Amino acid sequence: MKIRLDLNNKAHQQRIKYVLGDYVMSNIAWFCYNIVRYQMGTVAGYGNLGSYLTSKMVLLGQLFFPLLMMVTYSFSGYYNDVCRKSRVQELFTTIVSAGINTLAIFFLALINDVIGVRGSDYEMIFILWGMLFGFVYLVRFIITNNASRQIKSRQWTFPTLIVGSGSAAIAFANKLNSMRKSTGHEIKGFVNIPGENPVKGNPLPYYELDELKEVCAKEDIWELIVVPSRDDLHQNMSAINKLFALGLPILISPERFNMMQSQVRISDLYGEPLVNISRSSLSDSGKNIKRAIDIVVSILALIALTPVFAIVACIIKATSPGPVFYLQERIGLHNKPFKIIKFRSMVQNAEVNGQPQLSSDDDPRITPFGRFMRKYRIDELPQFWNVLKGDMSIVGPRPERKYYIDQIIERVPAYALLHQVRPGITSMGMVKYGYAKNIDEMVERVKYDLMYLDNMSLLNDLKILIYTIKIVFTGRGM
After folding, report:
1. Is the pTM of this model over 0.85?
2. Which of 86, 260, 380, 413 has the fewest C-beta atoms lying within 10 Å of its C-beta?
């Protein structure tokens, strides 16, 4: 569709502007710094500035260091969302990125410069940081300012659906449309939440939750704003849980956020403040680093554990009939199903007629070797393949089956928020609580996973990993 192509192309062009702007200005900053570096006498052995700037060392640096800077910018998360940027976040990200690049360049290339005075060393570091920050931020500010102007003047809009069809939803849509400075939302229609009475006479169409996937594709919807008219916690959270599968930003007004228990992420301050409940509290840079760690560690683990996998596979085949691996459908990121892979620890066809059934410590379906694997979490090791594929993360809430999720949400509606993030091989719930033998215990374990969601950080991931390793080596897996 023309609208889809125009909007996607505009976002793509915006990202290209940022990338090219950063690359060009990083080159200029490094070139200018080399001029200052020469003039301040921190390099020796060159007859004049021209011979220095055309030397092999400087030319190689001009090629290598801007590329190194681009890696930092990418990991910072700056290119993740290019359509509507926070000015404060942009400033902070640029300051930190410039600092990281300055330290990297100093230890790679400048540490051997001979100045003789410690204060001059600090001065050169500060000059480099100032140039990297100043040149890059100038172009970023211009690009972001231009985009912000287009959004506020309604030249650039984002097709949006309001989830809710009552008077509160209609009033909220009218409020957005009447703002002097637009927030960029172009309301395309309303979505009925069961139990609400749609307002008659509204010119925009009403849709049902079950047809959202087709509607979002047809209208090229970019965002969903939840504005329920009723304070029915279970009904509203049930509706929100269905929205995660669409993979779109889900926003809700702060005054209605009291139906959930979670930290918030404000997505817009200059217009109508909205809470983004489809994003975790982890920063964009944290998400990029976390995913990079997942990929590297899973590759190394799959390679290093190959002999272990072969031995375990032989023992499973020798001790019980059936396949080595066990595949089971779980619900993951954005409420999407995936096949989790584990070493089979139970007898073949352990669930009669496919009826979900939780296990216990003395479950007769667990094979003798399966009991050993579960004790040391060996059965979970093949899930590094799920991590590599992107279905899971190393650390994250444990994925459950839809059969149990529906029951948990009835008692803990906030469970739906766990679908903001990739599920994990290990989690705070598994570390603090362990395996659950019934729904009551699953509900108790969910509290720890929600606590993890509210406090997501790379440091907390490391702590959970350390505890998991301790559990594995002490055999407290069951």
Report:
1. no
2. 86
